[in-house]
Amino acid sequence: MLDRLTVLGHALNEGGLLFRDRAKLERHQSRLATEHLRWAAVHSSYTASRFRQAGLGVGQWRQLPPISKAEMMANFGTLNTAGVTLAEVLAVARHAEQTRDFSPVLRTPGGEITVGLSSGTSGNQGAFLVSRTERLQWAGVVLRHLLPGWPAGLLRRQRVAFVLRAEGQLYRSVGSSRLHFEFLDLLRPVDELAERLTAIRPTLLIGPPGVLCALLNAGATARPERVVSVAEVLEDADRAALEAGFGPVVEVYQATEGLLALPCPHGHLHLNEAHVHFDFEALGNGYVQPVLTDLRRRAQPMIRHRLNDLLVLADGCTCEQAARRVARIAGRQDDALNLPSASGTRLTIWPDFVRGALNRVADLREYRAAQVGAATLHLQLDPDAPALREAAEREMRSALARLGVGDIELMFGPLLADWPGAKRRRVVQSWH
Ligand SMILES: [Zn+2]
Predict the structure, then answer these.
(1) Is residue 167 scored above 60 in pLDDT?
(2) Using an 8 Å Cβ cutoff, are 161 and 184 in contact?
(3) Which of 24, 107, 229, 340 is 20 to 30 Å from the Cα of 430, by its Cα?
(4) How far apart are CA 136 and CA 4, in angstroms?
(5) Contact of 356 with 366, CB cutoff 8 Å
(6) Is the link from the previous residue into 202 a cis peptide, with omega within 30 of 0?
(7) InterPro entries, from UniProt (predicted)?
(8) Distance 105 CA to ligand 1 centre (A)
(9) What whole-number distance in Å separates Cα of residue 142 and Cα of residue 181?
């Protein structure tokens, strides 16, 4: 059972954390950071050793060399403060996925810990822990930012439909008579899901845009007050289709690494800076990669953690919030292509760029572009017609030439179906 008053308390408290003054927001962050980092250095031995190895005091945390998912996983047992091993977490999470039990929980001396696995190719999968306290906090923040018509919306009956993968269930479980949460299992047939969604008549619809579009195409009808796009990059074409079919769309940037950005009343995405500290590494052409420090998360401290995502930031917002604005989530670096340049060096080609080229091909419904060799791209097209192959080849070659990419081979084929429940990725790096 979830403590509704606690969630509501967090939601109300959140109102005081919508800073308009950047200096105040930064003072708030540094207060949280001082307390949190001190706690983490005492309770997480891996975190303590990072400070020791870098020769830094806890107060110098912003200079700590970032770690990535690989290092987090390699040191899982000494990084987490719940005293659980990676083997225990993997066993519980995998069992839960097989049995479709979406609230896998590990009981520890410190309390219940929800476990989750992030999607990712084998060897690249992340394991994540969230304590009960953290779950309540998360629910409060989400409620405050996403419930239509806050705070009056609390007084009306709300039906929230979540269409999520198993790992999304890390954050299931907010429920009461007024606030009803319904979970639609992504592994069910899409026609069945569409029927169920129509029957629920959600006031708030939350899911990955690819799946929501598929439900729309399968005949689902719903008029939620708000559609929330999560877990995948929201592309303009999908946004337009969802707005026409269901209603207003907002985007939430939630990863297993944390709740990273939330929409403001003006429909723009702002970093969740009241709870998470962000530094950014510039990667050229306006793209940045976040290094995040979660200022509250204790079960699995996320400190100077480099995210494999690529963002484009924007200047200010008409809503006047001090939290920085994300113009676009441009893709995951894991999916970036690595192609030879005309002069023989290697170039990184971001997924966003490939999408831009293929989105210019008229009449192309769907596609996947995969790098399958050192200089070979496989383009799966739907429909797979000779004229579309020609147009796709033209757009790709001219786009790649502009970036200085040298001679590459393009192969074509029809679009193959995703694995059930797989994250939809239009640009895939499968060459290593
Ligand atoms: Zn705004």
Answers:
(1) no
(2) yes
(3) 229
(4) 8
(5) no
(6) no
(7) ANL_N_sf, CapK_Type1_Caps_Biosynth, CHP02304_F390_synth-rel
(8) 36
(9) 13
8 A C-beta contact, residue 257 and residue 305: yes
Distance 320 CA to ligand 1 centre (A): 6
Cα of 22 vs centre of ligand 1, distance in Å, is 14
Q: What is the pLDDT of residue 166?
A: 47
Decide: 288 and 313 in contact? Cβ < 8 Å.
Answer: yes
pLDDT above 70 coverage of the chain, percent:
90
Which are the contacts of 330, defined by CB distance < 8 A and separation ≥ 6? 233, 287, 310, 311, 312, 350, 351, 352
Q: Say if strands 309-314 and 258-263 run parallel, antiparallel, or are unpaired.
A: unpaired
Cα 420 to middle of ligand 1, angstroms: 36
* Distance of CA 17 from the midpoint of ligand 1 (Å): 14
Q: How is domain 147-251 classified at the architecture level of CATH?
A: 3-Layer(aba) Sandwich (3.40)
Quick one: average pLDDT of 331-358?
Answer: 85
Model confidence at 423, pLDDT cuts 50, 70, 90, reads low
Is residue 197 very low, low, confident or very high in pLDDT (cuts 50, 70, 90)?
A: very high
Bridge partners of 111, per DSSP, are 108
User: Ligand 1 center to residue 324 CA distance, Å?
Assistant: 9
Q: How far is ligand 1, taken at its centre, from the CA of residue 344, in Å?
A: 44
**Read out DSSP for 285-322?**
TT-EEEEEEESS--SS---SEEPSEEEEEE---TT--S
Ligand 1 centre to CA of 101 (Å) is 37
* Residues 6+ away with beta carbon under 8 Å from 394: none
Q: How confident is the model at residue 156 (pLDDT cuts 50, 70, 90)?
A: confident
Distance 376 CA to ligand 1 centre (A): 42
pLDDT digits (tens, 9 = 90+) for 171-187: 444 555 667 777 787 77
Q: Report CA(24)–ligand 1 centroid distance (Å).
A: 17
The reply to whether 147-251 and 336-429 are identical in fold is: no
* Residue, of 154 and 9, whose pLDDT is higher: 9
Q: Are strands 337-340 and 346-349 parallel, antiparallel or unpaired?
A: antiparallel
> What is the number of residues in the chain?
432
Is the model's pLDDT at 235 over the cut of 90? no
Domain range list for the chain: 1-135+273-332, 147-251, 336-429
Distance in Å, CA 337 to ligand 1 centroid: 33
Q: Ligand 1 centroid vs 235 CA: distance in angstroms? A: 19
CA of 306 to the centre of ligand 1 (A): 25
Q: At what angle do helices 386-402 and 351-359 cross, to 10 degrees?
A: 140
Domain 336-429, CATH among 3.30.300, 3.30.70, 3.40.80, 3.30.230: 3.30.300
Q: Of 108, 96, 118, nearest to 305 (Cα)? A: 118
